[in-house]
Amino acid sequence: MRKERKMKGFTLVELLIVLLILGILIGLAVPRYLAALDKSKETTFCANVRNVLSAVESWRMENATTAYPSDVVLTSTIINSATYFSQPPINPYTGTILEVTPTNVVTTTEKGQFGYTAVDSTYEIKTVPDCGLK
């Protein structure tokens, strides 16, 4: 009489099939995750720039002026001030406080750039990525 042995565990083929399925799922999920991560950074960046522009308008009303602040005043008096922000706006691309540069210095190669130039009662803004602000 022959005793039947119960097989316990998984065969190598079964394990390889599971690993193949997991690999396919990861291959589909990672690109979507990275695209969503990039989109969230862009949305956060544009929201922070809009908040800065709202603070600029508040600064103009408080100072009763039609002139817009220079980039130096924007950085020191508005962005880094507790008057307009409970904490300074962060650039999600760099992880640092949003830096203001003159618009003629902004390039199209690096994301997270906020170009601002003020001339009396007008200003020019350039952002990378483009936030649709004028």
Please give a structural write-up:
- With 134 residues, the protein is an alpha+beta fold.
- It has one domain.
- Helix content is 45%, strand content 12%.
- The protein contains two helices and three strands.
- Strands 1-2-3 form a three-stranded mixed beta sheet, with helices on one face.
- A hairpin with a 2-residue loop joins strand 2 and strand 3.
- It is rod-shaped, with a radius of gyration of 26 Å.
- The N and C termini lie far apart (89 Å).
- The relative contact order is 0.13.
- The model has no long low-confidence stretch (mean pLDDT 91).
Kindly summarize this structure in a few lines.
It contains two helices and three strands; from the N terminus they run H-H-E-E-E. The chain is an alpha+beta fold.
Strand content: 5-15%
Largest sheet: 3 strands, mixed
Output the radius of gyration: 26 Å
* Total of DSSP H or I helical runs spanning 4+ residues: 2
- Overall shape: it is rod-shaped
| Integer tally of domains | 1
End-to-end Cα distance: 89 Å
Estimate the mean pLDDT confidence: 91
Structural class: alpha+beta
Uncertain segments? none
The number of strands is 3
Helical residue percent band: 40-55%
- The strand order across the widest sheet is 1-2-3
Q: Which helices and strands appear, and what pairs or packs with what?
A:
Layout: H1 12-62, H2 71-79, E1 100-101, E2 113-119, E3 122-128
Parallel strand pairs: 1-2
Antiparallel strand pairs: 2-3
